[in-house]
Design a protein that fits this description.
The complex is a heterodimer of chains A (331) and B (283).
Chain A lengths: L6 E10 L2 E11 L4 E5 L6 H8 L7 E6 L2 E2 L4 H6 L1 E4 L11 H11 L4 H14 L15 H13 L5 E5 L7 H18 L2 E6 L2 H4 L4 E6 L2 E6 L1 H8 L2 E7 L2 H12 L4 E3 L2 E6 L2 H11 L4 E7 L3 H9 L3 H7 L8 H10 L1
Parallel strand pairs in A: 3-8, 3-9, 6-7, 7-8
Antiparallel strand pairs in A: 1-2, 1-4, 4-5, 9-10, 11-13, 11-14, 12-13
Helix pairs in contact in A: 4-5, 8-11
Chain B lengths: L14 H21 L1 H23 L10 H30 L2 H6 L5 H24 L11 H26 L5 H17 L12 H8 L4 H12 L6 H7 L4 E2 L2 E2 L2 H23 L4
Antiparallel strand pairs in B: 1-2
Classes of the chains: A alpha/beta (331), B mainly alpha (283).
Chain lengths: 331, 283
Protein backbone atom coordinates (compact mmCIF):
# COMPACT_ATOMS: atom_id res chain seq x y z
CA UNK A 1 0.00 0.00 0.00
CA UNK A 2 1.15 3.53 -0.66
CA UNK A 3 2.12 5.91 2.10
CA UNK A 4 -1.09 7.84 1.57
CA UNK A 5 -2.94 8.33 4.84
CA UNK A 6 -5.92 6.08 5.55
CA UNK A 7 -8.13 9.14 5.89
CA UNK A 8 -7.36 12.54 4.40
CA UNK A 9 -9.82 15.37 4.94
CA UNK A 10 -9.40 18.86 3.51
CA UNK A 11 -11.63 21.84 4.29
CA UNK A 12 -14.68 19.65 4.68
CA UNK A 13 -18.00 21.39 5.29
CA UNK A 14 -21.65 20.32 5.46
CA UNK A 15 -24.65 22.58 5.72
CA UNK A 16 -28.18 21.28 6.36
CA UNK A 17 -30.70 23.91 5.37
CA UNK A 18 -29.33 26.71 7.54
CA UNK A 19 -27.45 24.66 10.14
CA UNK A 20 -23.70 24.30 9.66
CA UNK A 21 -22.99 20.81 10.97
CA UNK A 22 -19.38 20.59 9.82
CA UNK A 23 -17.34 23.74 9.36
CA UNK A 24 -14.05 23.71 7.38
CA UNK A 25 -12.57 20.57 8.94
CA UNK A 26 -9.13 19.30 7.89
CA UNK A 27 -7.11 16.37 9.28
CA UNK A 28 -5.46 13.14 8.29
CA UNK A 29 -5.16 9.72 9.86
CA UNK A 30 -2.07 7.63 9.05
CA UNK A 31 -2.45 3.95 8.25
CA UNK A 32 -2.66 1.77 11.35
CA UNK A 33 -3.56 4.56 13.75
CA UNK A 34 -6.55 4.60 16.03
CA UNK A 35 -8.06 8.02 15.78
CA UNK A 36 -10.90 9.41 17.82
CA UNK A 37 -13.36 12.21 17.29
CA UNK A 38 -14.25 13.53 20.72
CA UNK A 39 -17.08 15.94 21.27
CA UNK A 40 -20.58 16.35 22.60
CA UNK A 41 -23.62 15.05 20.72
CA UNK A 42 -24.48 17.35 17.86
CA UNK A 43 -20.89 18.57 17.44
CA UNK A 44 -20.71 17.18 13.90
CA UNK A 45 -19.07 13.83 14.59
CA UNK A 46 -21.74 11.65 13.01
CA UNK A 47 -22.11 13.98 10.05
CA UNK A 48 -18.38 13.82 9.36
CA UNK A 49 -18.33 10.04 9.64
CA UNK A 50 -21.35 9.81 7.31
CA UNK A 51 -19.52 11.86 4.70
CA UNK A 52 -16.40 9.70 5.04
CA UNK A 53 -18.56 6.59 4.60
CA UNK A 54 -20.19 8.09 1.46
CA UNK A 55 -23.63 8.17 3.06
CA UNK A 56 -23.82 11.94 2.84
CA UNK A 57 -22.38 14.37 0.35
CA UNK A 58 -20.23 17.18 1.66
CA UNK A 59 -21.18 20.75 0.84
CA UNK A 60 -17.57 21.89 0.51
CA UNK A 61 -14.08 20.44 0.66
CA UNK A 62 -12.85 16.94 -0.10
CA UNK A 63 -12.13 13.67 1.65
CA UNK A 64 -10.18 10.57 0.70
CA UNK A 65 -10.58 7.26 2.50
CA UNK A 66 -8.33 4.23 1.90
CA UNK A 67 -6.87 6.14 -1.04
CA UNK A 68 -10.15 6.89 -2.82
CA UNK A 69 -12.11 10.10 -3.11
CA UNK A 70 -15.45 9.75 -1.32
CA UNK A 71 -17.32 11.78 -3.93
CA UNK A 72 -15.89 10.44 -7.18
CA UNK A 73 -15.22 6.82 -6.10
CA UNK A 74 -17.78 5.97 -3.43
CA UNK A 75 -17.95 2.27 -4.34
CA UNK A 76 -14.17 1.87 -3.93
CA UNK A 77 -14.36 3.60 -0.56
CA UNK A 78 -17.19 1.31 0.55
CA UNK A 79 -15.27 -1.79 -0.40
CA UNK A 80 -12.44 -0.86 1.91
CA UNK A 81 -14.22 0.34 4.99
CA UNK A 82 -16.13 -1.36 7.77
CA UNK A 83 -18.85 0.41 9.68
CA UNK A 84 -20.36 0.07 13.11
CA UNK A 85 -23.08 2.59 13.81
CA UNK A 86 -24.43 3.66 17.15
CA UNK A 87 -27.86 2.29 16.25
CA UNK A 88 -28.17 -1.35 15.35
CA UNK A 89 -28.24 -2.13 11.64
CA UNK A 90 -28.76 -5.86 12.08
CA UNK A 91 -31.74 -7.78 10.77
CA UNK A 92 -33.28 -9.11 13.94
CA UNK A 93 -35.30 -11.74 12.10
CA UNK A 94 -32.12 -13.36 10.84
CA UNK A 95 -29.61 -15.42 12.80
CA UNK A 96 -26.14 -14.09 13.58
CA UNK A 97 -24.74 -16.29 10.84
CA UNK A 98 -27.33 -15.17 8.29
CA UNK A 99 -26.58 -11.54 9.00
CA UNK A 100 -22.90 -12.17 8.32
CA UNK A 101 -23.59 -14.23 5.18
CA UNK A 102 -25.78 -11.42 3.87
CA UNK A 103 -22.88 -9.05 4.42
CA UNK A 104 -20.36 -11.38 2.78
CA UNK A 105 -22.53 -11.67 -0.33
CA UNK A 106 -23.19 -7.95 -0.48
CA UNK A 107 -19.46 -7.23 -0.25
CA UNK A 108 -18.52 -9.96 -2.68
CA UNK A 109 -16.29 -11.85 -0.26
CA UNK A 110 -15.14 -14.96 -2.20
CA UNK A 111 -17.16 -17.96 -1.07
CA UNK A 112 -14.14 -20.13 -0.29
CA UNK A 113 -12.81 -17.47 2.08
CA UNK A 114 -16.12 -16.42 3.54
CA UNK A 115 -16.76 -19.45 5.77
CA UNK A 116 -13.34 -19.33 7.39
CA UNK A 117 -13.48 -15.59 7.84
CA UNK A 118 -16.99 -15.82 9.29
CA UNK A 119 -15.78 -18.28 11.90
CA UNK A 120 -12.74 -16.10 12.68
CA UNK A 121 -14.69 -12.95 13.35
CA UNK A 122 -17.45 -14.71 15.29
CA UNK A 123 -14.91 -16.44 17.50
CA UNK A 124 -13.14 -13.18 18.10
CA UNK A 125 -16.29 -11.59 19.50
CA UNK A 126 -17.22 -14.84 21.27
CA UNK A 127 -20.45 -15.39 19.39
CA UNK A 128 -19.54 -18.53 17.45
CA UNK A 129 -21.62 -20.70 19.79
CA UNK A 130 -24.63 -18.45 19.25
CA UNK A 131 -24.32 -18.23 15.47
CA UNK A 132 -27.61 -20.04 14.84
CA UNK A 133 -29.62 -17.83 17.22
CA UNK A 134 -31.95 -15.20 15.85
CA UNK A 135 -30.55 -11.74 16.59
CA UNK A 136 -33.69 -10.54 18.38
CA UNK A 137 -32.71 -12.85 21.26
CA UNK A 138 -29.36 -11.05 21.72
CA UNK A 139 -28.54 -8.49 24.42
CA UNK A 140 -27.38 -4.99 23.47
CA UNK A 141 -23.75 -5.91 24.03
CA UNK A 142 -24.01 -9.06 21.92
CA UNK A 143 -25.58 -7.12 19.08
CA UNK A 144 -22.79 -4.57 19.17
CA UNK A 145 -20.19 -7.35 19.14
CA UNK A 146 -21.95 -8.95 16.19
CA UNK A 147 -21.90 -5.63 14.35
CA UNK A 148 -18.18 -5.31 14.97
CA UNK A 149 -17.67 -8.83 13.66
CA UNK A 150 -19.73 -8.00 10.60
CA UNK A 151 -17.83 -4.77 10.00
CA UNK A 152 -14.62 -6.82 9.85
CA UNK A 153 -15.89 -9.63 7.67
CA UNK A 154 -14.62 -8.17 4.41
CA UNK A 155 -11.18 -7.23 5.82
CA UNK A 156 -11.61 -3.47 5.64
CA UNK A 157 -8.62 -1.15 5.74
CA UNK A 158 -10.44 1.41 7.83
CA UNK A 159 -12.98 0.52 10.49
CA UNK A 160 -15.38 3.31 11.41
CA UNK A 161 -16.98 3.05 14.82
CA UNK A 162 -19.66 5.60 15.57
CA UNK A 163 -20.05 5.69 19.35
CA UNK A 164 -19.17 2.00 19.58
CA UNK A 165 -20.04 1.52 23.24
CA UNK A 166 -22.83 4.03 23.81
CA UNK A 167 -25.65 2.58 25.91
CA UNK A 168 -23.59 -0.39 27.09
CA UNK A 169 -22.65 -1.24 30.65
CA UNK A 170 -19.03 -0.63 31.76
CA UNK A 171 -18.13 -4.32 31.68
CA UNK A 172 -19.35 -4.76 28.12
CA UNK A 173 -17.60 -1.55 27.11
CA UNK A 174 -14.32 -2.89 28.45
CA UNK A 175 -14.94 -6.10 26.54
CA UNK A 176 -15.58 -4.28 23.29
CA UNK A 177 -12.41 -2.33 23.76
CA UNK A 178 -10.40 -5.47 24.21
CA UNK A 179 -11.79 -6.72 20.87
CA UNK A 180 -10.82 -3.49 19.20
CA UNK A 181 -7.28 -3.73 20.59
CA UNK A 182 -7.07 -7.36 19.49
CA UNK A 183 -8.24 -6.34 16.09
CA UNK A 184 -5.60 -3.70 15.63
CA UNK A 185 -2.95 -6.16 16.65
CA UNK A 186 -4.17 -8.88 14.30
CA UNK A 187 -5.25 -6.95 11.25
CA UNK A 188 -3.29 -3.71 11.55
CA UNK A 189 -6.26 -1.76 10.31
CA UNK A 190 -6.91 1.90 10.85
CA UNK A 191 -9.61 2.70 13.38
CA UNK A 192 -11.67 5.85 13.24
CA UNK A 193 -14.11 6.32 16.05
CA UNK A 194 -16.36 8.95 17.48
CA UNK A 195 -17.15 9.16 21.13
CA UNK A 196 -18.30 11.44 23.85
CA UNK A 197 -16.81 9.27 26.56
CA UNK A 198 -13.49 10.59 27.85
CA UNK A 199 -12.18 7.20 28.92
CA UNK A 200 -12.96 5.83 25.50
CA UNK A 201 -10.96 8.56 23.81
CA UNK A 202 -7.99 7.59 26.02
CA UNK A 203 -7.69 4.37 23.98
CA UNK A 204 -6.87 6.34 20.84
CA UNK A 205 -3.42 7.13 19.49
CA UNK A 206 -4.65 10.56 18.55
CA UNK A 207 -7.82 12.49 19.11
CA UNK A 208 -9.48 15.49 17.56
CA UNK A 209 -11.69 17.55 19.81
CA UNK A 210 -14.67 18.75 17.85
CA UNK A 211 -17.16 21.37 18.93
CA UNK A 212 -19.83 23.18 16.91
CA UNK A 213 -18.60 21.50 13.73
CA UNK A 214 -14.99 22.64 14.12
CA UNK A 215 -11.85 20.87 15.24
CA UNK A 216 -10.56 22.86 18.20
CA UNK A 217 -7.56 20.65 19.05
CA UNK A 218 -5.90 17.57 17.59
CA UNK A 219 -3.04 15.53 19.11
CA UNK A 220 -2.20 12.53 21.29
CA UNK A 221 -4.16 12.36 24.55
CA UNK A 222 -0.93 12.92 26.52
CA UNK A 223 0.10 16.05 24.63
CA UNK A 224 -3.41 17.45 24.83
CA UNK A 225 -3.54 16.89 28.57
CA UNK A 226 -0.14 18.41 29.19
CA UNK A 227 -1.10 21.36 27.00
CA UNK A 228 -3.65 22.31 29.61
CA UNK A 229 -0.56 23.08 31.75
CA UNK A 230 -2.57 23.38 34.90
CA UNK A 231 -4.08 21.11 37.49
CA UNK A 232 -7.73 21.01 38.38
CA UNK A 233 -8.88 21.72 41.89
CA UNK A 234 -12.45 21.07 42.90
CA UNK A 235 -13.89 22.52 46.07
CA UNK A 236 -17.02 21.58 47.90
CA UNK A 237 -17.98 24.37 50.23
CA UNK A 238 -20.78 25.59 52.45
CA UNK A 239 -21.42 28.59 50.17
CA UNK A 240 -20.30 28.21 46.57
CA UNK A 241 -21.23 31.74 45.62
CA UNK A 242 -19.20 33.37 48.35
CA UNK A 243 -16.24 31.16 47.59
CA UNK A 244 -16.41 32.04 43.92
CA UNK A 245 -16.36 35.75 44.58
CA UNK A 246 -13.48 35.36 47.03
CA UNK A 247 -11.51 33.30 44.50
CA UNK A 248 -12.16 35.95 41.91
CA UNK A 249 -11.44 39.02 44.04
CA UNK A 250 -8.67 37.85 46.36
CA UNK A 251 -6.81 35.35 44.19
CA UNK A 252 -7.57 36.63 40.69
CA UNK A 253 -8.82 33.22 39.50
CA UNK A 254 -11.68 32.34 37.16
CA UNK A 255 -13.74 29.76 39.03
CA UNK A 256 -16.54 27.83 37.35
CA UNK A 257 -19.19 25.53 38.68
CA UNK A 258 -19.14 22.14 37.04
CA UNK A 259 -20.88 18.99 38.15
CA UNK A 260 -21.79 20.44 41.53
CA UNK A 261 -18.38 21.67 42.60
CA UNK A 262 -16.41 24.88 42.28
CA UNK A 263 -13.61 24.27 39.84
CA UNK A 264 -10.40 26.22 39.36
CA UNK A 265 -7.31 25.60 37.24
CA UNK A 266 -3.88 26.50 38.63
CA UNK A 267 -0.32 25.51 37.81
CA UNK A 268 1.27 23.30 40.52
CA UNK A 269 -2.00 22.66 42.30
CA UNK A 270 -0.40 20.71 45.15
CA UNK A 271 1.45 23.81 46.30
CA UNK A 272 -1.57 26.03 45.82
CA UNK A 273 -3.94 24.18 48.18
CA UNK A 274 -2.40 25.65 51.41
CA UNK A 275 -2.95 29.16 49.98
CA UNK A 276 -6.63 28.32 49.57
CA UNK A 277 -7.04 27.45 53.20
CA UNK A 278 -5.13 30.53 54.30
CA UNK A 279 -7.01 33.01 52.10
CA UNK A 280 -10.60 31.81 52.03
CA UNK A 281 -12.98 32.73 54.83
CA UNK A 282 -15.85 30.43 53.75
CA UNK A 283 -15.59 26.94 55.27
CA UNK A 284 -14.31 24.34 52.81
CA UNK A 285 -15.91 20.88 53.04
CA UNK A 286 -13.54 19.06 50.73
CA UNK A 287 -10.81 19.68 48.20
CA UNK A 288 -9.74 17.42 45.39
CA UNK A 289 -6.78 17.81 43.11
CA UNK A 290 -6.55 16.11 39.75
CA UNK A 291 -4.11 15.91 36.89
CA UNK A 292 -5.73 17.26 33.73
CA UNK A 293 -8.05 14.85 31.93
CA UNK A 294 -9.43 15.07 28.43
CA UNK A 295 -12.49 16.68 29.93
CA UNK A 296 -10.22 19.48 31.14
CA UNK A 297 -8.75 19.71 27.67
CA UNK A 298 -12.25 20.07 26.27
CA UNK A 299 -12.99 22.64 28.95
CA UNK A 300 -9.88 24.65 28.23
CA UNK A 301 -10.72 24.85 24.52
CA UNK A 302 -14.45 25.39 24.73
CA UNK A 303 -15.09 26.79 28.21
CA UNK A 304 -17.55 24.00 28.98
CA UNK A 305 -17.46 20.40 30.06
CA UNK A 306 -18.67 17.81 27.60
CA UNK A 307 -21.50 16.84 29.92
CA UNK A 308 -22.67 20.43 30.19
CA UNK A 309 -22.64 20.87 26.44
CA UNK A 310 -24.68 17.71 26.05
CA UNK A 311 -27.46 19.29 28.04
CA UNK A 312 -27.55 22.40 25.90
CA UNK A 313 -27.14 20.61 22.62
CA UNK A 314 -30.51 18.95 22.38
CA UNK A 315 -31.59 21.24 19.57
CA UNK A 316 -28.34 20.67 17.74
CA UNK A 317 -29.19 17.00 17.54
CA UNK A 318 -31.39 18.02 14.69
CA UNK A 319 -28.26 18.52 12.63
CA UNK A 320 -27.52 14.80 12.77
CA UNK A 321 -29.32 13.29 9.80
CA UNK A 322 -29.77 9.88 11.40
CA UNK A 323 -30.99 11.15 14.72
CA UNK A 324 -33.30 13.53 12.95
CA UNK A 325 -34.73 10.65 11.01
CA UNK A 326 -35.24 8.59 14.12
CA UNK A 327 -36.80 11.41 16.04
CA UNK A 328 -39.13 11.99 13.15
CA UNK A 329 -40.06 8.35 13.09
CA UNK A 330 -40.99 8.34 16.77
CA UNK A 331 -43.30 11.25 16.55
CA UNK B 1 6.05 -7.55 16.15
CA UNK B 2 4.69 -9.72 13.41
CA UNK B 3 1.49 -8.48 11.95
CA UNK B 4 -0.89 -10.66 10.01
CA UNK B 5 -2.53 -8.62 7.31
CA UNK B 6 -5.73 -10.23 6.15
CA UNK B 7 -6.10 -10.21 2.38
CA UNK B 8 -8.38 -7.53 1.09
CA UNK B 9 -10.28 -9.45 -1.54
CA UNK B 10 -13.68 -8.05 -2.05
CA UNK B 11 -16.09 -7.12 -4.79
CA UNK B 12 -14.50 -5.44 -7.74
CA UNK B 13 -17.70 -3.97 -9.09
CA UNK B 14 -18.39 -6.52 -11.79
CA UNK B 15 -21.85 -7.61 -12.82
CA UNK B 16 -21.27 -10.93 -11.07
CA UNK B 17 -20.83 -9.08 -7.76
CA UNK B 18 -24.06 -7.18 -8.22
CA UNK B 19 -25.82 -10.37 -9.19
CA UNK B 20 -24.71 -11.92 -5.86
CA UNK B 21 -26.23 -8.90 -4.13
CA UNK B 22 -29.51 -9.39 -6.01
CA UNK B 23 -29.64 -13.02 -4.95
CA UNK B 24 -28.88 -12.41 -1.30
CA UNK B 25 -31.43 -9.59 -1.00
CA UNK B 26 -33.97 -11.91 -2.62
CA UNK B 27 -33.05 -14.72 -0.25
CA UNK B 28 -33.40 -12.48 2.78
CA UNK B 29 -36.99 -11.64 1.78
CA UNK B 30 -37.79 -15.34 1.63
CA UNK B 31 -36.18 -16.07 5.00
CA UNK B 32 -38.02 -13.21 6.64
CA UNK B 33 -41.28 -14.34 5.09
CA UNK B 34 -40.86 -17.92 6.26
CA UNK B 35 -40.09 -16.75 9.82
CA UNK B 36 -43.21 -14.59 9.98
CA UNK B 37 -45.97 -17.19 10.25
CA UNK B 38 -48.61 -14.79 11.61
CA UNK B 39 -48.14 -12.66 8.51
CA UNK B 40 -48.80 -15.63 6.23
CA UNK B 41 -52.00 -16.49 8.09
CA UNK B 42 -53.39 -12.97 8.42
CA UNK B 43 -52.76 -12.09 4.80
CA UNK B 44 -54.77 -15.18 3.80
CA UNK B 45 -57.69 -14.30 6.05
CA UNK B 46 -58.80 -11.38 3.90
CA UNK B 47 -59.02 -13.19 0.55
CA UNK B 48 -60.80 -16.13 2.17
CA UNK B 49 -63.30 -13.70 3.68
CA UNK B 50 -63.86 -12.08 0.29
CA UNK B 51 -64.24 -15.33 -1.55
CA UNK B 52 -66.48 -17.22 0.84
CA UNK B 53 -68.41 -14.52 2.67
CA UNK B 54 -68.69 -11.70 0.14
CA UNK B 55 -68.70 -14.11 -2.78
CA UNK B 56 -71.42 -16.31 -1.31
CA UNK B 57 -73.49 -13.32 -0.33
CA UNK B 58 -73.21 -11.66 -3.75
CA UNK B 59 -74.06 -14.83 -5.64
CA UNK B 60 -77.68 -14.46 -4.47
CA UNK B 61 -77.88 -11.06 -6.13
CA UNK B 62 -76.77 -12.27 -9.54
CA UNK B 63 -79.88 -13.24 -11.49
CA UNK B 64 -80.13 -15.76 -14.26
CA UNK B 65 -76.82 -17.43 -13.79
CA UNK B 66 -78.34 -20.81 -13.09
CA UNK B 67 -75.78 -23.40 -12.22
CA UNK B 68 -72.98 -20.85 -12.24
CA UNK B 69 -71.15 -20.09 -9.02
CA UNK B 70 -70.43 -16.38 -8.72
CA UNK B 71 -67.40 -17.29 -6.63
CA UNK B 72 -65.88 -18.83 -9.73
CA UNK B 73 -66.07 -15.39 -11.27
CA UNK B 74 -64.47 -13.82 -8.20
CA UNK B 75 -61.72 -16.39 -7.93
CA UNK B 76 -59.14 -14.68 -10.22
CA UNK B 77 -59.99 -11.37 -8.56
CA UNK B 78 -59.37 -12.77 -5.12
CA UNK B 79 -56.04 -14.22 -6.24
CA UNK B 80 -55.02 -10.77 -7.51
CA UNK B 81 -56.14 -9.28 -4.23
CA UNK B 82 -53.91 -11.67 -2.29
CA UNK B 83 -51.01 -10.78 -4.52
CA UNK B 84 -51.75 -7.07 -4.32
CA UNK B 85 -51.71 -6.92 -0.54
CA UNK B 86 -48.73 -9.24 -0.12
CA UNK B 87 -46.67 -7.42 -2.74
CA UNK B 88 -47.37 -4.01 -1.26
CA UNK B 89 -46.62 -5.32 2.22
CA UNK B 90 -43.29 -6.66 0.98
CA UNK B 91 -42.43 -3.33 -0.56
CA UNK B 92 -43.17 -1.54 2.72
CA UNK B 93 -40.44 -3.66 4.27
CA UNK B 94 -38.00 -1.18 2.75
CA UNK B 95 -39.53 1.53 4.94
CA UNK B 96 -39.21 -0.77 7.96
CA UNK B 97 -35.64 -1.50 6.98
CA UNK B 98 -35.02 2.22 6.98
CA UNK B 99 -36.64 2.67 10.35
CA UNK B 100 -34.80 -0.24 11.96
CA UNK B 101 -31.47 0.63 10.43
CA UNK B 102 -30.92 -2.41 8.27
CA UNK B 103 -31.30 -0.33 5.14
CA UNK B 104 -28.05 1.38 6.04
CA UNK B 105 -26.28 -1.97 5.95
CA UNK B 106 -27.41 -2.23 2.33
CA UNK B 107 -26.78 1.41 1.47
CA UNK B 108 -23.15 1.40 2.61
CA UNK B 109 -22.35 -1.79 0.72
CA UNK B 110 -20.35 -1.44 -2.49
CA UNK B 111 -23.09 -3.09 -4.53
CA UNK B 112 -25.00 -0.83 -6.86
CA UNK B 113 -28.40 0.40 -5.80
CA UNK B 114 -30.20 -1.25 -8.71
CA UNK B 115 -29.07 -4.63 -7.41
CA UNK B 116 -30.74 -4.01 -4.06
CA UNK B 117 -33.96 -2.85 -5.71
CA UNK B 118 -34.04 -5.74 -8.17
CA UNK B 119 -33.44 -8.17 -5.29
CA UNK B 120 -36.25 -6.55 -3.30
CA UNK B 121 -38.60 -6.69 -6.28
CA UNK B 122 -37.77 -10.33 -6.99
CA UNK B 123 -38.14 -11.22 -3.31
CA UNK B 124 -41.48 -9.44 -2.92
CA UNK B 125 -42.77 -10.95 -6.16
CA UNK B 126 -41.77 -14.46 -5.08
CA UNK B 127 -43.41 -14.09 -1.69
CA UNK B 128 -46.60 -12.65 -3.22
CA UNK B 129 -46.76 -15.43 -5.80
CA UNK B 130 -46.38 -18.02 -3.04
CA UNK B 131 -49.30 -16.49 -1.16
CA UNK B 132 -51.30 -16.51 -4.39
CA UNK B 133 -50.51 -20.21 -4.83
CA UNK B 134 -52.09 -20.96 -1.44
CA UNK B 135 -55.33 -19.34 -2.63
CA UNK B 136 -54.95 -21.10 -5.97
CA UNK B 137 -55.06 -24.37 -4.06
CA UNK B 138 -58.69 -23.56 -3.16
CA UNK B 139 -59.67 -23.67 -6.86
CA UNK B 140 -61.69 -26.86 -6.54
CA UNK B 141 -63.91 -25.43 -3.83
CA UNK B 142 -65.20 -22.79 -6.26
CA UNK B 143 -65.49 -25.21 -9.21
CA UNK B 144 -62.28 -24.26 -10.96
CA UNK B 145 -60.66 -27.44 -12.28
CA UNK B 146 -57.13 -28.41 -11.34
CA UNK B 147 -56.05 -28.59 -14.96
CA UNK B 148 -52.26 -28.44 -15.28
CA UNK B 149 -52.46 -26.06 -18.24
CA UNK B 150 -54.76 -23.70 -16.36
CA UNK B 151 -52.68 -23.85 -13.17
CA UNK B 152 -49.45 -23.13 -15.05
CA UNK B 153 -51.06 -20.30 -17.00
CA UNK B 154 -52.37 -18.77 -13.80
CA UNK B 155 -49.01 -19.25 -12.07
CA UNK B 156 -47.19 -17.38 -14.82
CA UNK B 157 -49.75 -14.57 -14.77
CA UNK B 158 -49.57 -14.40 -10.99
CA UNK B 159 -45.78 -14.09 -11.04
CA UNK B 160 -46.00 -11.29 -13.60
CA UNK B 161 -48.60 -9.28 -11.70
CA UNK B 162 -46.74 -9.92 -8.43
CA UNK B 163 -43.64 -8.39 -9.98
CA UNK B 164 -45.56 -5.38 -11.28
CA UNK B 165 -47.25 -4.74 -7.94
CA UNK B 166 -44.02 -5.10 -5.93
CA UNK B 167 -42.33 -2.65 -8.29
CA UNK B 168 -45.29 -0.31 -7.78
CA UNK B 169 -44.89 -0.58 -4.00
CA UNK B 170 -41.13 -0.02 -4.21
CA UNK B 171 -41.55 3.03 -6.45
CA UNK B 172 -43.80 4.50 -3.76
CA UNK B 173 -41.72 3.32 -0.80
CA UNK B 174 -38.25 4.12 -2.09
CA UNK B 175 -38.12 7.64 -0.66
CA UNK B 176 -40.65 7.32 2.15
CA UNK B 177 -39.05 7.77 5.55
CA UNK B 178 -41.88 6.85 7.87
CA UNK B 179 -44.18 3.89 8.07
CA UNK B 180 -47.11 6.18 8.85
CA UNK B 181 -46.75 8.00 5.54
CA UNK B 182 -46.81 4.72 3.71
CA UNK B 183 -50.12 3.81 5.28
CA UNK B 184 -51.59 6.98 3.81
CA UNK B 185 -50.25 6.02 0.42
CA UNK B 186 -51.81 2.58 0.84
CA UNK B 187 -55.25 4.06 1.38
CA UNK B 188 -54.76 6.36 -1.57
CA UNK B 189 -53.67 3.76 -4.11
CA UNK B 190 -54.19 0.19 -3.02
CA UNK B 191 -57.93 0.00 -2.43
CA UNK B 192 -58.82 2.02 -5.56
CA UNK B 193 -56.48 -0.20 -7.54
CA UNK B 194 -58.30 -3.26 -6.24
CA UNK B 195 -61.82 -1.93 -6.81
CA UNK B 196 -61.08 -0.68 -10.33
CA UNK B 197 -59.45 -3.92 -11.46
CA UNK B 198 -62.67 -5.81 -12.15
CA UNK B 199 -61.79 -8.19 -9.37
CA UNK B 200 -65.28 -8.30 -7.82
CA UNK B 201 -67.48 -6.98 -10.62
CA UNK B 202 -67.28 -7.26 -14.40
CA UNK B 203 -65.95 -4.31 -16.37
CA UNK B 204 -68.90 -4.34 -18.78
CA UNK B 205 -71.64 -1.75 -19.03
CA UNK B 206 -69.96 0.67 -16.64
CA UNK B 207 -70.64 4.40 -16.82
CA UNK B 208 -68.02 6.23 -18.85
CA UNK B 209 -66.19 7.82 -15.90
CA UNK B 210 -65.78 4.50 -14.15
CA UNK B 211 -64.83 2.67 -17.35
CA UNK B 212 -62.14 5.30 -17.96
CA UNK B 213 -60.70 4.85 -14.49
CA UNK B 214 -60.53 1.08 -14.89
CA UNK B 215 -58.46 1.51 -18.05
CA UNK B 216 -55.68 3.29 -16.15
CA UNK B 217 -55.56 0.63 -13.44
CA UNK B 218 -52.67 -1.71 -14.33
CA UNK B 219 -54.16 -4.44 -12.15
CA UNK B 220 -57.19 -4.62 -14.50
CA UNK B 221 -54.82 -5.78 -17.26
CA UNK B 222 -53.86 -8.76 -15.11
CA UNK B 223 -57.29 -9.75 -13.78
CA UNK B 224 -58.77 -9.99 -17.28
CA UNK B 225 -56.32 -12.57 -18.71
CA UNK B 226 -56.56 -14.61 -15.51
CA UNK B 227 -60.34 -14.68 -15.69
CA UNK B 228 -60.29 -15.57 -19.37
CA UNK B 229 -57.98 -18.47 -18.58
CA UNK B 230 -60.39 -19.70 -15.89
CA UNK B 231 -63.48 -19.29 -18.09
CA UNK B 232 -61.80 -21.22 -20.90
CA UNK B 233 -61.58 -24.22 -18.63
CA UNK B 234 -65.11 -24.38 -17.25
CA UNK B 235 -68.45 -25.19 -18.84
CA UNK B 236 -70.40 -21.94 -18.85
CA UNK B 237 -73.49 -20.83 -20.79
CA UNK B 238 -72.41 -18.28 -23.42
CA UNK B 239 -74.97 -15.69 -22.29
CA UNK B 240 -73.61 -15.86 -18.73
CA UNK B 241 -70.05 -15.62 -19.96
CA UNK B 242 -70.91 -12.58 -22.07
CA UNK B 243 -72.20 -10.76 -19.03
CA UNK B 244 -69.37 -11.63 -16.69
CA UNK B 245 -66.28 -12.03 -18.82
CA UNK B 246 -65.94 -8.44 -19.94
CA UNK B 247 -62.39 -7.19 -19.72
CA UNK B 248 -60.36 -4.14 -20.59
CA UNK B 249 -61.21 -2.56 -23.91
CA UNK B 250 -59.43 0.19 -25.80
CA UNK B 251 -61.90 2.18 -27.88
CA UNK B 252 -64.27 -0.79 -27.95
CA UNK B 253 -61.52 -3.28 -28.87
CA UNK B 254 -61.03 -6.09 -26.39
CA UNK B 255 -57.33 -6.53 -25.65
CA UNK B 256 -56.05 -10.04 -26.25
CA UNK B 257 -54.61 -11.69 -23.14
CA UNK B 258 -51.05 -11.53 -24.44
CA UNK B 259 -51.24 -7.80 -25.03
CA UNK B 260 -52.85 -7.16 -21.63
CA UNK B 261 -50.04 -9.13 -19.99
CA UNK B 262 -47.47 -7.20 -21.98
CA UNK B 263 -48.98 -3.99 -20.56
CA UNK B 264 -48.54 -5.43 -17.05
CA UNK B 265 -44.92 -6.34 -17.77
CA UNK B 266 -44.02 -2.97 -19.27
CA UNK B 267 -45.70 -1.06 -16.44
CA UNK B 268 -43.75 -3.27 -13.98
CA UNK B 269 -40.43 -2.49 -15.65
CA UNK B 270 -41.14 1.24 -15.80
CA UNK B 271 -42.11 1.26 -12.10
CA UNK B 272 -38.98 -0.69 -11.19
CA UNK B 273 -36.94 1.87 -13.12
CA UNK B 274 -38.61 4.69 -11.18
CA UNK B 275 -37.95 2.86 -7.91
CA UNK B 276 -34.25 2.46 -8.76
CA UNK B 277 -33.81 6.09 -9.74
CA UNK B 278 -35.59 7.35 -6.63
CA UNK B 279 -33.70 4.94 -4.41
CA UNK B 280 -30.30 5.91 -5.83
CA UNK B 281 -30.46 9.54 -4.77
CA UNK B 282 -27.95 10.56 -2.08
CA UNK B 283 -28.72 13.33 0.37
Amino acid sequence: MSSEPAVLVEHLGKVFDDITAVDDVSFDVPVGESFGFLGPNGAGKSTTISILCTLLRSTTGSARVAGYDVTSHPADVRRHIGLVFQDSTLDEYLTAEENLRFHAELYGVPRDLAEERLRDVLEMVELWERRRSVVSTFSGGMKRRLEIARGLLHSPRVLFLDEPTVGLDPQTRAHIWSYIEELRRRESITIFLTTHYMDEAEHCDRIAIIDHGRIVAIDTPEVLKSSVGRDRIELRTADDRAVMSELRDRLGLEPTIAEGAVRIYVPNGDRFIPTLFADLTVPILSVSLAQPTLDDVFMSYTGRTIRDSEASSAERLASNPFIRRRMGARR
Amino acid sequence: MSVHVAPVRVATGTFADDWRAVKVVWKRELIRFSRNKPRIVTSLAQPVLFLFVLGTGLSHLIPGAAGFDFRTFMFPGVISMTILFTAIFSAVSIVWDREFGFLREMLVAPSRRWAIMVGKAAGGATVATMQGVIILALAGVVHVPYSPVLLLTLLGEMALVAFMLTAFGLALASRIKQVESFQVVMQLFVLPMFFLAGAIFPLTGLPLWLATLTKIDPLAYAVDPMRRAVFAHIPIPPEVAAGLNGGVTWDGWRLPSVLALAVVGVVGLVLLGIAIVRFSKTD
